[in-house]
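Our preliminary data section would be incomplete without showing what the modeling component actually yields. Below, a chain of 127 amino acids is followed by its predicted structure, encoded as tokens that our downstream tools consume directly.
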Amino acid sequence: MTSEIDKSDLRAPDYFGHMLQACDRILQYTAEMTRDRFMADSLVQDAVLRNVEILGEATNNLFQCVPQLESTYPDVPWIDIYGMRNRIAHGYFFINHELVWTVAVEQIPELRRQIFQILESLNTKSK
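Predicted structure:
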């Protein structure tokens, strides 16, 4: 039996780490894929969607533990990330897979770069 992790045990660097891992997974799942192949592969779609949900949930957790998140990192589309998570979680039957594909291949690489830079700066500050 595994013990559950209490959110209060996690800190901002943990949530940023979760986001980095989710970006890496999305990029891995779509690396050798064309748009048409993505549209035909529900397994990859589901994997990408799950990790987009993780990005949104980690963002929500960051909003709670870093109230100044948006002003500290204004170039990251925090509201869009959380909003997409909500659309997937609550509108799960009407997913726009074209939009998911576009986000995966056009926006996730930049988000990954931004999150990586944030983690680097946090690691530098903690040393």
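The CA atoms of residues 49 and 80 lie 15 Å apart. The helical segments are 12-30, 35-40, 42-65, 69-72, 78-90, 97-125. Preliminary results of this kind motivate Aim 1 of the renewal.
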